[in-house]
Amino acid sequence: MHLIDYLLIAALIVLVVIYVVLIPISRNKQMKQQKAKMDKFYASLSKDDEVLLRDGITGVIEKINGDKIKLKVASNVVVNVNKYGIISKIEEEENE
Known about the structure:
With 96 residues, the chain is of the alpha+beta class. Helix content is 44%, strand content 30%. It is a single-pass membrane protein.
């Protein structure tokens, strides 16, 4: 075998190592950062926050009990939802 063949094999091995080891490590780090961000968001939820659910329903938090939240979606209508169904808080406009 020639020197160029060895260099080609070495280059392929390096690419395989990058693909198999380094890329999953990078993705894992990004997933941990996203999970930490969402955990912080869920911990910040409190009574009287107006929130948006994944399916587009909005409401005001009446009570929080662990992962379960009582959400007022209309006058005299309170539904039980899982807190992980909430995707964002609805901030009030300052100019209203």
